[in-house]
Write a structure and sequence with these properties.
Strand 1 (2-3), helix 1 and strand 2 form a beta-alpha-beta unit. This protein has two helices and two strands; from the N terminus they run E-H-E-H. 45% of the residues lie in helices and 6% in strands. Strands 1-2 form a two-stranded parallel ribbon. By secondary structure, the protein is mostly helical. The chain starts with a strand and ends in a 19-residue tail after the last helix. It is flat, with a radius of gyration of 15 Å. It has helices spanning 10-19, 27-45; strands spanning 2-3, 24-25.
């Protein structure tokens, strides 16, 4: 399955989750993710504490 900027349909999610459908990203999606990836990479390099990125979620929010 090639993921594009188009919204995912529930049937697509089920194919991946239940059937192990292989997933790849359309180049346009990779390009769109670039700015967010740089923010995450900066937070990791700076050892910033960022909920859900450098910590767990919910009850694990204090876990680095």
């Amino acid at each position: 399955m090639l993921l594009s900027p188009a919204p995912l349909r529930p049937a697509q999610v089920l194919l991946v989750a239940r059937e192990g459908e292989p997933v790849d990203l359309d180049p346009s999606v990779r390009d769109a993710m670039g700015p967010a990836r740089r923010v995450v990479e900066h937070a990791l390099a700076a050892r910033d504490v960022v909920y859900g990125v450098t910590t767990g979620f919910g009850a694990l929010a204090d876990t680095i």
